[in-house]
Amino acid sequence: MCGRNTLTSNIKSITKEYSIDTCEFDKLKAQYNISPSSHTPVLIYKNKTRVLKKMRWGLIPQWASETSIGNQMINARSETISEKPSFQNLIQQNRCVVFSSGYFEWRNLNGKKQPYYITNKRRLFSFAGLWSKWESINKDVIYSYTIITTKSKKNLSQIHHRMPVILKNSDVEMWINHTKYNFNIVRELLKPYSNNLYYHNVSPFVNSTKNDTIRCIEEIKNPNTINLF
Predict the structure, then answer these.
(1) What is the largest CA-CA distance in the chain?
(2) pLDDT above 70 as % of the chain
(3) Following CA atoms 118, 124, 127, 133 in sequence, which dihedral angle do they give, to the nearest 10 degrees?
(4) Which among 37, 55, 100, 192 could bridge 143 via Cys, Cβ 3.0 to 4.6 Å?
(5) CB-based contact 84:72 (threshold 8 Å)
(6) Would residue 96 show up in a list of annotated catalytic residues for this protein?
(7) Is 2 a catalytic site residue?
(8) What contacts 148, CB < 8 A, 6 or more positions away?
(9) Which residues pair with 164 in a beta bridge?
(10) Which neighbouring-strand residues pair with 141?
C-alpha cells in the first residue's frame, strides 16, 4: 500500500526531465506529507502530447454517485486491475504517471507503528497510475487518480508487503502512450522496482496529515526516544 508520499521538485525541473508539452501549474509548493484527496501533478498522454494535469488522489469512477468513494481507491493492485470494474475500463486509455520524491510506510515495532521514508536518493519516482474524469449532476468536474501497487522488493518486505509500481524513465513513454501500446504489452511493467531503494526512520510527526514540513522526512537515529510533537 502507498498512503502517503512527498513531492519536493519544482515544476521547471519536472517539465524539463519528462519533456512536458502542456502544464497546468505555474508553480508548485514542496509537499512533505501528501495524503489522499490532495491534488498533485499527474502526467497523461493526450492528442499525441504529454500533459501535466492537476488531479486529486483517490480515484472517483465515472459511475460514482459521490466523491467520497475516492478515499477507498487510493491504490489499485496490479494483479487484479484488469478484473475490477472500477479499473478495467481505464487500463487501455487512462494510464498515467504520478510523480513522487519518496513515500512512507509503517512497520509494527514493539507494539507501536514506526514510520519509514523510502526513496532512491537521486531523482523522482514515476509511479504507474490510472486516472478518471468524474462529473457531478451540476457539471462540476474532478480529475482523480489511483497509484498501482505490487509486491514489495525483498529489502522492503520487512516494512510492508506492498509497494508502488515504480517505472524506469525509459518505460514512461510506453506506459502513458495508449495509442501505441495496449495494456497487454505494458502490463509487464507492473512489477517490483529493480533498482536500489533506501529507507530510514522518521518521526511519528508525519502521522498527522496536518503536518507538512521537512521534518516529516528527517531521519531519526533512535525511534524509541523521539517526541511525537
Answers:
(1) 54
(2) 97
(3) 130
(4) 55
(5) no
(6) no
(7) yes
(8) 75, 76, 77, 78, 81, 127, 128, 129, 130, 164, 165, 190
(9) 149
(10) 135
Predicted confidence band of residue 25 (pLDDT cuts 50, 70, 90): confident
Name the active-site residue from 24, 105, 173, 219. 105
**Could you give the domains of the chain?**
5-107+125-196 (3.90.1680.10)
99 contacts 129 by C-beta, under 8 angstroms? no
pLDDT of residue 181: 97
Tens of pLDDT along 149-191? Answer: 999 988 898 899 999 999 999 999 999 999 999 999 999 999 9
Residue 198, CB half-sphere, CA atoms under 13 Å: how many? 9
- 62-87 pLDDT, tens digit per residue, is 999 889 999 999 999 999 999 999 99
Q: List the grid coordinates of 42.
A: 499527474
Alpha-carbon distances of 86 from 81, 183, 199, rounded to whole Å: 8, 16, 32
